[in-house]
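Data deposition worksheet. Section B asks for the primary sequence of the deposited chain exactly as it was used as input, without tags or linkers unless they were present during the calculation. Section C holds the resulting structure in C-alpha cell form. Section D is free text for depositor observations; keep each observation to a single sentence. Incomplete worksheets are returned to the depositor.
Section A, Depositor: J.P.
Section B:
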Amino acid sequence: MVKSSKSNIVLLISIFILLIIAFFPVHYGYFCDELYYISLSKHLSFGFVDVPPLMPLCLAIVRFIFGNSITSIHLMPAAIGVVVLVTTSVVVKRLGGGFFAQFLALISVTLAPQYIAFASLMTYDSFNRLFWTLAIYNLVMLLVSDNKKYWLYFGIAAGLGLMSKFDILWLGAGITIALIFTSQRKYFSSPQFWLCGLIALLIVSPYLIWIVTHDFLTIEYFVNYSHCLSNIGPFKFLKDQIITMNPLTFPLWGLGLYYFIFNTEGRRFKLLGLTYVFIFILCLITHAKFYLITPYYFVLFAGGAVLVEKWVQKTHMNINWLKITYCVLIIVSGLLFVPYVRPILFPRVAVKYTGFLERMGLAIEYRDVSNSLPQWFADCFGWKQMTKEVARVYNSLPIAEREKTVIFSRTYSQASAIDFYKDQYGLPMPISGHDQYYVWGTKKLAIGSNVIVVGHDDDALKVLNVVCSGVLMVGKTYNKYTMDYNNKPIYLCRGFRQSVNIFWKHRKFMSM
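Section C:
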C-alpha cells in the first residue's frame, strides 16, 4: 500500500512537471501548422488532403469551448501527454515493476525531448502518439493475460490512429511481422486478430471514401511527399533517436529492448522487442522521418526500468548512490534539452543555446543555413507581421478594386496565417493551391480580378506577367527569426486574364 502511494505521488509529480513545461508562459507565436489545423477545424469534413479528420474535429470542439488562444489549443496535446504518463505507470506495474522502476520510467518519459515537443504543440503527431500508446498498452495486456479481447481494443485504437495519421500502419506492420518470429504467431488463427483489422478498417472507412471521392489527392500528396524524403542511413537514424529521447536514457531503452528479446524473465514479452526492431527497419526502408517511431519508446523505458530494478534487487551491494546519480543525470540532462524543444528562452538567447547544442552534436539539424533558429521555432515568427503587410497593400486599393481583389499565397502556411488574422485586418479568405486549400478552390477569382500574391520568389514574375496585365512589387515580408522561405516579396497582379481553370490546374501543389 505504501509503495502504491509512493508510485502515485511520483506519477502526480511527473504530470505536474509536464504541465509546467507544456504551458510555460514564454511563446514565440502560433506554429505554422497550428494555424493550418485551425483553418481545417473551421471547415470540418470526413477528410482533408494531408490530414485525417479526427484531430481537426477535436480542435474545433476545443476552440468552441475555450477559444483560439495558444494556451487553449495546447490543452489537448498536454492532456495526451498526461495519458501517456498514466499509461507508462500502468505498463510498468503490468511488467512487474515496483517503485524504483516507476520512478525511472516516468522521469525518462516526462523529460524526453521529443515527448516534451509532442505535449506542447498542437499537431496530428500528438494524436498519433496517443493511439500508438493505447494500442501498445493493449498489446501488453494481451501478452500478460492472453485474453484475446485486447485485439479488439487494439483495433479500435488503431482505427482512431488511422483517423489521426497513417503512421500507425508502421506499428501494425511491425507487430504482424514480429508475430511470425514468436510463439504468439498462434494469434493468426484467432478470429479476434482478424476482427482487429476489420474494426480498424471500418473506423477509417469514411476517410478512405473521402479520398476516393476527391480524385485520390491524398495518394498524390503521399507520392510527392515520399520524393521529398531522403535516406539518412541506419546510424544517423539511430543517432536521431538517441538525441530526441535524451542521450542519457539510451542505456535504459536499450536495456528495455534487451529485456524483451533476450532476458529469461522478460522473454514472454519478446513480441514488444521484435516489434520495435521491425518498425525501425521499416522506417529505414521507407525513409521515414526520425520521429515516426518515437511514440514506441515509452514501453522500452518501462521494460528497461523493470530490468534495472530487478538487477538492483539481486545485487547484495549498496548501490543506492548509483541509482540516485543516474536518475539525477536523466533529470538534469532532460531539463537541459527543454529549451531546444520548447520556446522558454527569448529568441536571441535561444539562437545561441540551440547553436551550442548543434555544435556539440546534441541536436537534430533542422534549420535554414542562413537562419539562426531551428525550424520548429522559426516557423512561429512573422505570421501576424506578414498579414499586416498584406492588409496594408489590400487597404491601399480603392474600395471598388478591393471588391474584386483576391489574396493568393504559395503555401498553406501563409494562407492559414492570413485566414487566422483576416477578421482583425478586414481581409477576404485567401486562396492557395497547396494541399487542402486547393480543394477549397478559387473563391471569387475571375477574369479582371486583382491578385495579391504572397510567398513567391522573384522567378514567379514570369508566370505573373503571363496571367496578369500588369505586375508590381508592393511590399515584402521580413522577420529576422523566421525561415528564409517566409521572407518574400508581395506582388500586386492587376487585371487577371487567364482562364481560372487553367490557372488553378497549374497551381496544384500536393506536398509538404
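Section D:
The CA atoms of residues 228 and 479 lie 26 Å apart.
The first strand starts at residue 405 and ends at 409.
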